[in-house]
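Q: I'm a student working through a structural biology exercise. My instructor gave each of us a protein and asked us to get a predicted structure, then write a short paragraph describing it. Mine is Quinone oxidoreductase. I'm not confident about reading structure output yet, so if you can add a plain explanation after the tokens, that would really help. Here is the sequence I was given:
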Amino acid sequence: MTNSVRVHAYGGPEALSFDQIPKPAPATGEILIRQEAMGVNFIDVYYRTGLYKLPNLPSVIGMEAAGIVERVGAEVSGIAVGDRVAYPTQLGAYVTHRSIAADLVVKLPDSISTRQAAAMMLRGLTVQALLRQVRALQPGDTILVHAAAGGVGLMLCQWAAHLGAEVIGIVSTEAKAERVRASGAAHVLVGYNDVPAQVRRITGGAMVPVVYDSVGKDTFVDSLDCLSPRGLMVSYGNASGEVTDVALRMLAARGSLYVTRPKLATFIGRPEQLRSASAELFDVVASGALTIDIGQQFPLSQTAEAHRALESRATVGSTILVPD
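A: Happy to help. First, here is the predicted structure for Quinone oxidoreductase. I'll explain a few features afterward.
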């Protein structure tokens, strides 16, 4: 048997059940991982609440983890027992042992620990996609980053600054502002009062060519109002609720704006894409340009507490779970 966290019915953090389930065996093309750490992300909340539907109930949730290969199934090459591996976007991660297709994981370099990997794979590859693929960030660009003290936000600030961008970060408290400044943000806004006016002041009226918004419903219109003509609104999260009922004329009235809703799987869906993006992420971390900030760590049996902390915006940096 192996420990897991499952959703039996959609709901709040109390819907998370710490269950023992049968330990899986790897099928052809699969490996069995003894997972040493699992990442906690807002997408896990969406699956728990039912905003994103699970394939069946009960289901193990969680999207990313890292650990040690314990067994290798038939027809697997390039991965051996004892290798350290990680994956970023495969539903079912809140479990201590998992069988998974070998082409969905990447091997970890010696410079990256399994706990670091669990704290960075989904978030770090999201940032790689946002800054390098959704829109190739250029030196000298000024960007606006919502929830800049979160797991993705801190990485966005660091990597964007490394690429030569001027970062405006938004946070909820002054304590978080200090973390964001230390992560490379040139300007930090505390609170969400009249954000467009503050961006106009910082940019001398030019506004910004791109906004990265993970908050969703509460900030969508303000994000549009921060863009320069033909600017790009990148909506990649729903922390305050899903954005609905958007009239396309809103984009025309504000200067022929663009809006995108990227999904990470689109950018790393093929094994070679996953390996390439991961290699760039590992290189940026190894160079010291990107620091993986594990702000919180919870035992797997306390996953509900981890979700409460995440939803109340009490977390800073990445949150991980570890086996009890």
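A: Here are two points you could use in your paragraph. The chain has two domains: 2-121+286-322, 139-261. The first helix runs from residue 42 to 49. It's a good idea to check both against the output above yourself.
Q: Great, thank you!
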